[in-house]
Amino acid sequence: MQKTTPLLLRVIRLIKLLLQVFSGVLQSLVYPYFPSYIQRTMMQRWAKGVLTCLEIRLQCCGSLPVWQVQRALLAANHVSWLDVCVLMAAHPTRFVAKAEISQWPILGFLSRNAGTLFIERARRSDTQRINKKIGEVLENGETVTVFPEGTTTDGTQLNHFHASLLQSAVNADALLYPVAIRYHNAAGEVCKEAAYIDSSLILSLQKILSQPRIDVALIFNPPIPCGSRNRRELARLAEQAIADTLSVPIVHKESGKFSGLPSE
To answer: 226, 234 in Cβ contact below 8 A?
Structure first.
């Protein structure tokens, strides 16, 4: 039977997390005024602090982008809101998120000041705008991450990758890095408590705090040159690379919690 964290320890972790979030709010006030190399350091340290508060141990391997290489787009499978902190802790990046997040208390404030790119998911025409914006960010030497599934899963399957936001990588002749994310509990099993499916943020946090620890593996697959391929080819190549890395099936249907990406 899987052990759970004692209540007192959960409370201590929660207090540490709240202090870390408060620290992030203070840092975000000055974050936009620092040069990019300092911003990356601030982002990475803060994200590592969040993982430490939650007893989440990160193992990172594979072909991480180097800062000397411009125009790097990361395409990752999507399991949890933790994915953002995990990716920032390994390789500071900007994200594409649904516009509603920008209005969330605290998290919206942090996301806006960290340079998150928000997309109006109800407007198909907004895809062109966001692709152009991603291209501009890539040309400036910053990394951008998208979650092409458009949903979260429990980590035992991979949903069909939507191709629309990968057009930015084609336009910018970027390198596309398929990134596989996998969560395990202390027993070495897939940690479904880390997943964010049909849940509130508070309930999700309660499940995460209940775990003695969570191990997360972040595997960067070799980059795919984008200039000679179309977006659908890139979506299938990235999708298959991540599915093979995780040894999970690809499911061609919508499931889980929608994260704001348009369809093909």
So the answer is: yes
C-alpha span between 57 and 216 (Å, rounded): 6
Q: Each residue of 49-80: b (16+ CB within 10 Å) or e?
A: bbbbbbbbebebeeeebeeeeebbbbbbbbbb
Q: DSSP character for 199?
A: -
Give the residue ranges of the chain where pLDDT is below 50.
Answer: 254-264
Q: Distance between CA atoms of 12 and 20, rounded to whole angstroms?
A: 12
Q: How far is CA 254 from CA 136, 212, 225, in A?
A: 30, 32, 28
- CA gap 108, 125 in Å, rounded: 23
C-alpha to C-alpha distance for 157 and 169, rounded to whole angstroms: 25
CATH 3.40.1130 fits domain 7-251: yes
Of 173, 120, 193, 163, give the one whose Cα is nearest residue 263. 163
- Can you give the residue ranges of every domain in the chain? 7-251
* 216 class by beta-carbon count within 10 Å (0-12 exposed, 13-18 middle, 19+ buried): buried
The predicted model scores a pTM of: 0.91
Number of helices (H), then strands (E), belonging to the chain: the values are 8, 10
The crossing angle, in degrees rounded to 10, of helices 82-90 and 36-53 is: 130
Task: For residue 160, give the nearest of 261, 67, 81, 13 by alpha carbon.
Answer: 261
Residue whose entry in the numeric block shows the structure tokens 């062109």: 128
What are 239-252's pLDDT values in tens digits? 999 999 999 999 97
State the pLDDT at residue 154.
94
